[in-house]
Structure formats: structure tokens, C-alpha cells
Automatic annotation (TrEMBL):
Segments forming domain Gfo/Idh/MocA-like oxidoreductase N-terminal: 9-129
Cross-referenced SUPFAM superfamilies: Glyceraldehyde-3-phosphate dehydrogenase-like, C-terminal domain (SSF55347), NAD(P)-binding Rossmann-fold domains (SSF51735)
Pfam families reported in the protein's UniProt record: GFO_IDH_MocA, GFO_IDH_MocA_C3
Protein name: Gfo/Idh/MocA family oxidoreductase
Keywords, alphabetical: NAD
Organism from which the protein derives: Gryllotalpicola koreensis
Lineage of the organism: Bacteria, Bacillati, Actinomycetota, Actinomycetes, Micrococcales
Keyword field contains Lipid metabolism: no
InterPro entries: Gfo/Idh/MocA-like_OxRdtase_N (IPR000683), Gfo/Idh/MocA_oxidoreduct (IPR051317), GFO_IDH_MocA-like_dom (IPR055170), NAD(P)-bd_dom_sf (IPR036291)
Amino acid sequence: MTTATPGTIRVGVIGIGQRAVIAQHVAASGVDAAVVAASDPTEPGRARARELFGAEVLVTASHRELIEAGAIDAAIVTSPDWTHAEIATELLRAGVAVYLEKPMAITLDEADAVMTAAAQTRTPLYVGHNYRHSSVARLMGSLVRRGDIGEVKAVWCRHFVGNGGDYYFKDWHADRRHVNSLLLQKASHDLDVIHMLAGGYTRRVVGMGALSLYGAIADRATREGQLMTDWFSYENWPPLAQTGLNPVVDVEDLSMVLMTLDNGVMASYEQCHYTPDYWRNYTVIGTEGRLENFGDTADGVVRVWNRRRSWDLAGDAQYPIAGDSDGHTDADLLTVSEFLRSLVGEPPELSPVAAREAVAAGALATTSLRSGSQPLDVPELPNGIRDYFASLPLASPTIAVAR
């Protein structure tokens, strides 16, 4: 077993699937912390833990064994979505600080149970909404905060999930029992960024959606022990030619959400899992202009229009997007580092309240779309829980653009 020197934060990794690699950022966080343990209920997962973190780490079949052994001070929870609430709640009540991969939970009740456990025990909770820390989101947020488009009135997001067939319809993500809907698993990133750009949280929501394409594919397969990287290929095209879908496919592959936020901002989100391209497009409209991103990784650009005119693709200002050329590894490093720094006294930028509100919007939008698109009001956190998190210090967002 890896032994940590006195004062080192002992980190355990819970659930060794596709996202467990983010724990490798612990070593680069600048904090005296080390991965010393991991748990996974499957033998392939436990084997991956040894490959990722070294043969000397303590590897168990359950997070409860790590709790009972007093082996860890903090945990990075990257287990499947439907296990998040139970695992996080048990860790928090045991006094183990938690980094919880998004979404916080797959229902609002479960999310509020996690928030309650953190508040009652005063145990640190951080939810890894890494897209909030992506270069494109930080750039757009900086432009909004410094007033380049005036007061925000509307936020629109179109999400072209070109890899959706491979990412979400060949394993447990396709089964609503395990994710509720992809408005939590996938859209929670974007709902969180919409809230950040708008400066408020969703209080009324309407959803529409359908399993409009992948339900027609009859070829199914069981992929126990495999990860997405084992079957992913850009050659899996066109979408109706996909093979080996999950035995259960009952989540929507096309969805749309309308939102009214608590500050009056109106927002929309659209998600399609069978587009040829894979990226997000945000449009933010304010009282003095609008901004829009073209591309969402390095080599993309955010453009601002703040003069009246007819059509003009270039806009009045352009700001290059830095960061990764593919994916969001840079954002993963920032979130893991922010979590660990928060354990040594540096306030994080992101409150767990934001993660709860992303679940709230996604879960209620799912209920709406599955019940005839009726408008639903999104409840706030109970007062005592809300007051506790409001009392915790937060750092100012990082400025990602110079004037």
C-alpha cells in the first residue's frame, strides 16, 4: 500500500471507469496530496486501478472498506451516475471530503440528500463540473462579467453530440434507470454554464424530447468489462448503421429545454446525439450586444457584436479560445486542483449549489418532456441548507481575457 507522509492528503478513487483518469491530476495539483487507495466492485475495475495509480495502492471492492479502514482523507468519486448520491452521502457522513463527478445525482431528491449530508456534517463537497473551467466557458464568462454585451437577457445553447451513439447508447448511459436522462448526464455541463453566463438559476422549465433515431436499431450487445474507448470509432457512421447498442435503450437522443431563471433571464438548450459534428454553440444576448462561440476548443473563437448592422460573420471583436485542442483535460486539472486547494484553505470558485441547480433543471426538464411538456417550477434548496452553503467563501472567477 502507498503510504503518505504526515500532512499529505490521502486520496481514494471510487469507481475506476472512463473518468477515473482525472485522479492522475492529483500529482500535478500543487497540493501535498497523493492517491493511496481505490475501490471498484469489478475485477476489471480493480485491475485498471493498479494500472492507473500503481501496484502499491490499496485496492478494495467497496468504498465502505476504505472508510472502515480509515485509509483516506478525501475521495474522488467517478463511479456510474446512479451510485453518486449513495456513495457521496456515506463518504460525507464518515468525514471524508468528496470530489463528486457530475452530475451530482440523477434525481433532485438525491441531489438534495447529498447537499444535506454535506451541510449537516460540515464535510467539504466539490462537484466536478469541469466544463465551467473550460477555456471557452471561462472566456465567455469573462466577456460577460466585464460588460462587453451589457446586461444578459438571453442564453441559447445548441449541443451537437456527434459522438453520442458511441458515448451514450452502447452502455449503461442508454438506460434511464441509471442516468434518468441525458439532460443530466450530458446536459448538466451546459445547464451549469448557462446559469454561470446568465448569473442566475432556473426556476421554471419546459422540456421536449424523443428517442427519435437509436430506438430503431435492433442490434444490441452486452459490454461488461469494456470501456467506451474499446468500441469508439469515427467510422461508426451514419447513425442508423451503428451496431452493438446497449440491451436497454430508453433515453431520449433528441431534446430541447426552455428555462426562465430567477433573475428574469430566459434560456434554451438543444441536444442531438446523431449530428456529424461534435461541439457546443452558445449565444449570449445582452442589452448592448451579443457573443457567440465558433468551436469550443483550441483554435476556436468567441465573437462579439456590439454595433448595429446587417449580417456580419466577423463581428466587432474576436477572442481566440485557448486550452486543449480536443476534450477538456485542462479543465479536469483545474477542477481537481481547485478541490484539493479548498482542503488547505483556498476558497473554490464553484459552490455545490451550482451543481444542485444543474440537476434540478435537468431532472425537472426530463419530467416535463415525459409528461406532455408541461411547465414545471424548480424548487429552491431548503432554507437551512441554502444558508449553510451561502456562508462558505468563494473565490472570484478567473479572468480569461485581457481588454
